[in-house]
Predict the structure.
Amino acid sequence: MKSELYNEEEIYKIEDAISPIQLEPDDFYIVICYADDLNNGGREKLSEIISALGWNFSLNAKLIELQKDEQIAINQFLLSNQIRVVLTFGFTSKQLGLQIQSSKYQKLCFEHVQHIQADSIYELMKDKSKKIQLWNAIKEYKI
């Protein structure tokens, strides 16, 4: 059942979004990025970020890697009582199916879920100021 807080009017729709993601009972943290962003040291950089937070992809977090031509509607996670944080790298609000404009590194609250959009992992590796912005946005989620 949808909350009365959400407008169900569809402003734009993501065509061909990947089907709903199956979560494990202990998946509290969702990380979404493009698979290409994990090349050339990107996977290692993402591992550093996740480790610094105390998250673990085999215990309490789920990594969703999309191909460049794939899209995802993250609303499937935003009304979940299970998910605590959704962290996305390299996506615009529209690419995520969000019907609001949001800024990178700004926390969006959806009921129980916090969403943070960041630059791509590749951009983070090139620009130290973006890494600092990311850390300032996510450090409160360290466990």
Summary: The longest strand covers residues 29-34. The first helix runs from residue 42 to 53.
